[in-house]
Amino acid sequence: MNPTRVQWIAFQTIVVKEVRRFMRIWQQTLLPPAITMTLYFIIFGNLIGSRIGEMGGVDYMSYIVPGLIMMSVITNAYGNVSSSFFGNKFQRSVEEMMVAPVYPITILAGYVAGGVARGVAVGIIVTLLSLYFTDLQVHNFGVMAAVVFLSAILFSIGGFINAVFATKFDDIAIVPTFIITPLTYLGGVFYSISLLPDFWQGVSQLNPILYMVNTFRYGVLGVSDIHIGFAFAMLFVFIFILGGYSIWLLRRGTGMRQ
Amino acid sequence: MAAALIIEDLTKVYGNGFEALKGITLQVKEGDFFALLGPNGAGKSTVLGIVSGLVQKTSGKASVMGHDVNGDTFDARRSLGVVPQEFNFNQFEKVFDIVVTQAGYFGMRAAEAKESAEKLLKALDLWDKRDTPSRMLSGGMKRRLMIARALVHGPKVLILDEPTAGVDIELRRSMWDFMQDLNRQGTTIILTTHYLEEAEQLCRNIAIINKGEIIKSTSMRSLLSQLSTETFVFDVCAPVADDFSLDDFEIKVTSDESIEVIVDKGQSINRIFTLLTEKGVEVRSMRTKSNRLEELFVDLVKEKTA
After folding, report:
1. Where does B229-305 sit in CATH, by number?
2. Domain segments of chain B: what residues?
3. Residues B253-262 pLDDT 10s
4. Domain B3-225: which CATH class?
5. Among B208, B202, B233, B211, which residue's Cα sits nearest to residue B296?
6. pLDDT tier, B305 (very low <50, low <70, confident <90, very high otherwise)
7. Is B142 near chain A, with CB under 8 Å?
8. ipTM for the complex?
9. In chain A, how many domains are there?
10. What is the CB neighbour count within 10 angstroms for residue B170?
11. CB contact under 8 A, A101 and B107
12. Closest residue of A to B48, CA-based?
């Protein structure tokens, strides 16, 4: 049998399994971000936003919507892969793939595609909800789609690495709680970094999520605090480095093979 | 006949320094029904883990159907089906989905995978449970599900690590029939088990492993022929005296109505009946004290440990 054909079918199998998983437990995967983001729109966008006025040349609600969509995509892509892959490790069902002729790159691609699928699904739900609160413009659809897709890939890979090293369920909650959430909040979701003193503007530019949020905002509003080309270059470099590292971990069987 | 499994000088030292395998060499012929026996912690599961890709070897070589498990992983894994000792499927997935997903990992198209899954689930009496999440199955059903999953891609070699552990007698016998049918159709079966009766009933060849070393690798017939004595228990109709004797046979009166007779290789069991009849002892029933293989196994392991 042709190995390429086997890998293609194995990839589709993992993707179908992953999508089936997050659809089966939609109350835990798709509903909570919809509720949380609706609360953000109501509280920050409507109630507080009406007193803030404009930010970056647009009304506050329009300013925060792109950031909130990106925040949903990033956290859900990461959470999907980290919880699913760790769940498979915990139940040892990961062994089903390890005894099969599935290449490490196929396993990684399958899980990442599952994470991207959930990230994009949640992104679409949040976008549809935002239409109730504001008129969403589209300045550059290509930039919007590309940054969503690449960010979801990058954070899915991050979730995968987290799951490989995790030995208990607490370990897959630590990174989102102590790293991703703070970086997202400080990544210009709710404010423009031009409001910060020079020193903190410099510090903010070390935050990778700032580039994703601002690039997506540029795609929607045509407004950005950073250089778009640099953001894409950074996304590609990180995907390449972390993707390569994940494949190396899978080859070694880290956290899976004795 | 070609070899289905070749293991050469295989060693495994775990991270904590424990030497699980001390350079074992083993060969299983294609079409064989082979038993790998050993006490707990002897290294059986480590051997099977290395062959199936779940454990990393320290040194040595292993190949399945001529394909090196490390160098030619793709073909080695396609030739192999694995039924592990512990349940290792997703507890939330449905029975049918588990089997079809496994087929997908082996590159089977959806239609082909579903057809194979249906055939196996029917053969293993699980078809009625196809839409049941795996966590809802009984222990015996879970074991059968693991067998269906391991066979869905039609492997040439099937590894079963304690396949009937915790399974009731009736189900165990039906699983034996299933495995024997499978072997007759050409699948090489490698089995580890704690039920020595199972190994004696099913397997043609056997290896005994103890403390990471193969202490015996031979045919079942040749191994059993090494048995020098066998103990028979006779249940008698009336009590016999404590000093009861049976000519040159070594005997032990274990209770009023039970006598154990140790029969050496070459001694005739007919003579026991003749002697008992002469002494007016009526026999109600007769049985062997323990499984023959069990006696040998205990002797071999004890000998090596001493």
Report:
1. 3.30.70.1560
2. 3-225, 229-305
3. 877 788 888 8
4. alpha beta
5. B208
6. low
7. no
8. 0.89
9. 1
10. 9
11. yes
12. A99
